[in-house]
Amino acid sequence: MHTKAVVLNKIHQAFALGNKTIPILKGISLSAQSQEFLSIVGPSGSGKSTLLNCMSGLTQPTAGQVLINNVNPYQLSPSKLAQMRRQEIGFIFQSYNLVPALPVFENIVLPLRLSGEKIQRKTVQNLLEKMNFAADLNSFVTNLSGGEKQKVAIARVLLTHSKIIFADEPTGAVDSISKEIIFTLLRKLADDGACVVMVTHDIELAMRTDRTIILKDGLIQENLIKPTASQLLTTMEE
Ligand SMILES: Nc1ncnc2c1ncn2[C@@H]1O[C@H](COP(=O)(O)OP(=O)(O)OP(=O)(O)O)[C@@H](O)[C@H]1O
Ligand SMILES: [Mg+2]
Cross-referenced Pfam families, in alphabetical order (predicted)? Predict the structure, then answer.
């Protein structure tokens, strides 16, 4: 049975700019379930990352309700919220969010260390190699290219066995072969039962997810089940 992994009910998000308040999300209602691969597309600045942050317990919206596995993350104590994020959620950030002072291996196993899980270096090496990255696990992440950093960030999430994965443009910095590999890994996570929510600018990838929402002017402009390229192009041009 598919369970509702994330539910959003009339989410609003606004940011203060000087003495003004700029509305970014203007009432977003949406749910995503287990075994579903949902993509979010929309123009740059339309609030895709903002939406993902609200959905994942990172930033509390100014109004509206968020439920993650039937729990409102913003009603939890900071320690319970941290626990929920660690145990239930994997987040691949647009900006990678790696720790510069740590080598590749330590960056990847950081969440596992926090939950007391042990992992072999070989397992990590194999996973990166599967992503077309023959990494030196001892090198510092500051020396990596954008695409390599992205692969480290993705490996970190893949190893946590999270059932809800948020990915903010996970293929934004990589070549086309790596893009295909990363997409296939995410597709498999969803097929194996996870709920995967991916922000992307890539129409060809969005087409291969189960459902695409198009975000525009702070609202969901379209909710398309298995959209075709022409459907996506038409709605995005409007
Ligand atoms: N913490 C913040 N404080 C103030 N403004 C913010 C904050 N976060 C986002 N914004 C603004 O909200 C708008 C939406 O930003 P967001 O990063 O969500 O867009 P996006 O759709 O992810 O864009 P991109 O495709 O370029 O990644 C932008 O105008 C941005 O400047
Ligand atoms: Mg963004």
Answer: ABC_tran
pLDDT of residue 1: 63
Q: Is residue 11 part of a domain?
A: no
Residue 180 burial (10 A CB sphere; 0-12, 13-18, 19+) = middle
Tell how far the Cα of 44 is from the centroid of ligand 1, in angstroms: 8
Ligand 2 centre from 190 Cα, in Å? 22
Q: Which residue has the tokens 């539910």?
A: 7
**Rounded-to-10 torsion of CA 231, 174, 32, 7:** -120
Domain span at 41: 34-61+76-237
* Ligand 1: residue whose CA is nearest its atom 24: 44
Residue 238 pLDDT greater than 80, yes or no: no
